[in-house]
Structures are given as C-alpha cells and as structure tokens.
Design a protein that fits this description.
By secondary structure, this protein is mainly beta. The protein is built from three helices and 33 strands. Strands 2, 28, 29, 30, 31 and 32 form a six-stranded antiparallel β-sheet that branches. Strands 1-5-4-3-33 form a five-stranded antiparallel β-sheet. It is globular, with a radius of gyration of 21 Å. The relative contact order is 0.13. The structure holds 4-hydroxy-3-methoxybenzaldehyde (V55) and fe (iii) ion (FE). Fe (iii) ion (FE) binds next to β20.
Length: about 475
C-alpha cells in the first residue's frame, strides 16, 4: 500500500499557508466593487511555491515548494484566472511516484534515492516575458518555458545554448523601454562554486554580452540592479558550504564575521573594470532600483541589518534574531578609493517586495512601491513612497488581511512616471480566499477602483510581471519614457 499523504503540523502549513495543491480555471471573475478601468488590457503573471507532496521533513521553508504559476487576464472589463503547476523534473517525478522525493531546500544529498540525478529546481519564483516567450524561473535551475495562454509547460531551456551557466536568475530585468533583458547566474558552474556571470540579451533574445567574474564567497545572490553604466551585484554573507550540505545540512549559513561586498560591473567593459565596495555583514533579498548620479551609484534595497533568513543558522548552528527590513540607500562613490560605501534609511516603516514603474529601472526615479508592515497582527499594506520627500501613500486592505507584491501598469505607454494602476493580490485571511484589487497608483489611500473576487485562495506568490495585450502577440513592450 502507498504511504498516506500527510503534511506536518508546522507553522508554514497552518492557516493561510495550508498547501493548496489546486489547479483551477475561472473565466470572468466576479467584480465585487467598482469597475476595471478602460484600457487595462493584458495579463498579470505571478509565480509562487506550493507543495505537491510532503517532503517527509519538518524543516521545510517558505521559499521551497513546487512552482504554482498564476495568470490574471484582463480584457474589456473582465478578468479570467488560471493557475497551473510548472511541470519541472521534480514535479513530474513526484507525480509519477505519488509522493515527495525531494528533501531539504536545494540539498540534493537529502533526496530519495529514486530522485538521483534529477534537478531540485521548482521554477517557483517569478514570471519573465521576453522576446515573445514566457518563462517560470528559479535561481538554482535553467528557465522553464510556458505557453502564455494555457500555462502548459513547454520545457526547460538554455535559450538555444545561450545560457552557458548551469542556472539562471529569478530576478532578471526586462527593460520595457529598450526591450533588452539583463540577467545573471550565481554559483554559476554548480552548487557551492564562486562564479558569477552577467548576461545581456537584445530585444530579439540574442545574447550580446556575457561577463564572468568571481564572488568573494559562495553567496546567495537573489537579486541585482542595473544602471546606464554599471550593473550592481550585492554579495551578502549567506554562504554555501558544500561540506555541510553533503552532511545533510542547510544550503546556506549566516556568517556575521564576513563583509557585505558590492560589485559594480561595467555594462560596456570587461571584468578588469569591476569596482568593489565593502561594509559590515547585512543581507537583503530585494532591490528596489539603482541609478547613477554623477560619480555615485545609488542602490535602494530592503536591507536587513543582520540575517534576512533566520532559518539559516551560523556555521556553529547558532540562530540569529530576526531583524526587520528597511528601505535603505547604499551610495557608492566611484571617486572614492577606500572601498567604503554610505548607507541611509529611506523609510522608518519596515518593508519588503519593492517595485517601481519598471520603465524607470536603472534610471533616476521618483516613485517606489512596497509591502509595508505596520501592524503586529501579521497584516500588511501596500505603500507608495515619494523618493524625493519620503512621504507615504498607503492602501490597507483590512484588519488581519495582507497584501502580496504589487504590479504597476502605466496608464498609457508614455504616461508620466507613476501615472497608472497598481494591481495587488490581497489575502482575505479570515475568509480563506483572495481578492485582486486595482488601485490608482497615484492615490492608494483612496482605496480600490475595482475589487475582483477570487472564490479560491491564492496561497502565496513571490513575484510576477505584466504583459500588455498587444505585447503577447508582438513580443515587444510599447513603453516610452514620458517627455515631461
Ligand atoms: C529568495 C527566494 C527564493 C530562493 C532564494 O527572497 C532566495 C529570496 C523564492 O525563492 O530560492
Ligand atoms: Fe525574490
């Protein structure tokens, strides 16, 4: 007889976190408040982790779990919803075995013997649309291409041999003005290696640059940032020790005695032009933006003055206290030669999952968006920050409810920065279901212009992207920087 399927009673799988394990298709979702704005036509793709089967362990972490890919298709005032598992090697092997075969996060040494040689990749982190193709991404594996209408998995791809590393990033930047794709890979030659590689692809998906360099240690490089001249790579001391991994340990260890390193990689030069900056041990998952300002490069990120992942201990197994993330500006002066950088807090409210009007990625910008944590009850809010004044404009979904990462959509292709909508998945925790709200991106406090009801729970999504209706067909984003 097969083993009974039973998830462990751990916090991660309690309440809102209960595995959903449900693919669904719902046409014309109910709009329970307001109206979908005219002209808001396109698809919001989002990706997240769910659990296909229990791993058989009690140390599962929220960033693991099979990719469940969601789409919200806006057309002529209606929204269609669909979610599907990404059919990774891991998903297909487990589907066949009808049980979990993969152990600890990214630790292949803890897998079931029947999974030998199969990749741990879950494709669970984000959606990327570039040169007419849709992908599900995880930073330890190559991209999986999906059908943009059905979400059926087409398969794992190295983009016609162009990705020469063993893996890709889950935080690429598609410039919606030039249609270029900026991407990278860390631990690029395999788990525990110190190689990093930067890739630049043109609007047609042809690789035009590949630059390899060495990291100071086998870091976790979840995200990076771009500017017109420099590509910004932060290295925080969450480090992979393969000896520990081989013994069944965690994939990362927090090393508070090691420095934060930031590499500025020349967009138009080679590795000999890389500039390095250093500071005390800190960490971050996510960058809001970066830009060049005279001799300086500013990097705005949700920075933790300590370990962003308390479930990863020190090499001695010591736990580190959780610390809140604050939107912080790290300024690096290229005219300074002592490798130091300056740090200033931009917002006093803890925040994560920063976003922008993506037309302004890598460029001087005035508007930032993030999830703000203002209450102690686990609820959260969507905040807009005016980067000049620091003023906040906040949408709070309701007591006990929480928001997921937002998506900005410009009102028109050449609208001024920030003029458009924010689309936000809202977790109606007490009701055990979700809503998708559409906000006026210049007046979040006014509340939704439309609320779209989901009769199901969109359990947890990390990141996503908006693809305008025409872009799905042409493969080209129509966006421009406003003349104003
Ligand atoms: C992060 C997220 C991941 C991951 C590693 O936020 C780092 C950081 C969603 O998956 O696998
Ligand atoms: Fe992320």
């Amino acid at each position: 007889m097969s083993q009974p399927i039973r998830f462990p009673e751990i916090q991660l799988y309690a309440g809102w976190g209960e595995p959903m394990r449900t693919e669904c298709t719902i046409d014309a979702l109910e709009v329970i408040q307001g109206e979908i704005p005219k002209g808001l036509n396109g698809t919001l793709y989002r990706n997240g982790a769910d659990r296909q089967y229990p791993s058989g362990r009690t140390d599962d972490i929220f960033i693991d779990g099979e990719g469940m890919f969601h789409m919200f298709r806006f057309h002529d005032g209606q929204v269609d919803y669909r979610c599907r598992w990404v059919h990774t090697e891991r998903y297909l092997a487990q589907a066949k075995a009808r049980r979990g075969l993969f152990g600890r996060y990214r630790n292949t040494f803890t897998n079931d013997p029947s999974a030998a040689g199969l990749h741990n990749g879950t494709a669970n982190t984000t959606a990327m649309f570039h040169a007419g193709r849709l992908y599900a991404l995880k930073e330890d594996d190559l991209p999986y291409e999906l059908n943009p209408d059905t979400l059926d998995t087409i398969g794992k791809t190295d983009m016609n041999g162009q990705i020469t590393s063993t893996r890709f990033t889950a935080h690429p930047k598609v410039d919606p003005v030039t249609n270029e794709l900026f991407a990278f890979s860390y631990q690029a030659r395999g788990d525990g290696t110190t190689d990093c590689v930067f890739y630049l692809f043109d609007k047609d998906g042809r690789k035009v640059k590949e630059l390899w360099f060495d990291m100071p240690y086998a870091a976790c490089v979840h995200d990076f940032a771009i500017t017109d001249e420099w590509i910004v790579f932060p290295f925080f001391p969450l480090i992979t020790d393969m000896e520990a991994v081989k013994k069944g340990g965690a994939f990362y260890q927090w090393n508070p005695d090691k420095a934060t390193h930031i590499a500025l990689v020349p967009r138009n030069g080679d590795a000999s032009g890389i500039r390095w900056f250093k500071g005390a041990a800190t960490s971050a998952g996510h960058m809001m933006n970066a830009y060049r300002d005279g001799s300086k490069v500013h990097l705005d990120l949700c920075l933790y003055e300590g370990n962003c992942f308390p479930f990863f201990t020190t090499p001695k197994g010591e736990e580190t206290p959780p610390v809140p993330p604050f939107l912080t500006r790290i300024s690096m002066d290229l005219d300074r030669n002592d490798e130091g950088f300056e740090k200033s807090k931009l917002c006093q409210v803890p925040s994560e999952m920063p976003r922008t009007d993506d037309r302004y990625q890598g460029r001087p910008y005035g508007q930032g968006y993030m999830i703000a944590y203002r209450a102690q009850d686990g609820s959260s809010a969507t905040a807009r920050i005016d980067m000049k004044t620091g003023a906040l404009d906040v949408y709070t979904p309701g007591p006990g409810d929480s928001v997921q990462e937002c998506q900005f959509v410009p009102r028109t292709p050449d609208a001024p920065e920030g003029d458009g909508w924010l689309i936000v998945p809202v977790s109606r925790v007490a009701k055990n279901r979700s809503d998708l709200v559409v906000l006026d991106a210049l007046n979040l406090a006014a509340g939704p212009v439309a609320t779209v009801k989901l009769p199901v729970r969109v359990r947890s999504t990390f990141h996503g992207t908006w693809v305008p209706e025409d872009t799905l067909k042409t493969g080209v984003y129509p966006y421009k920087l406003s003349a104003a």
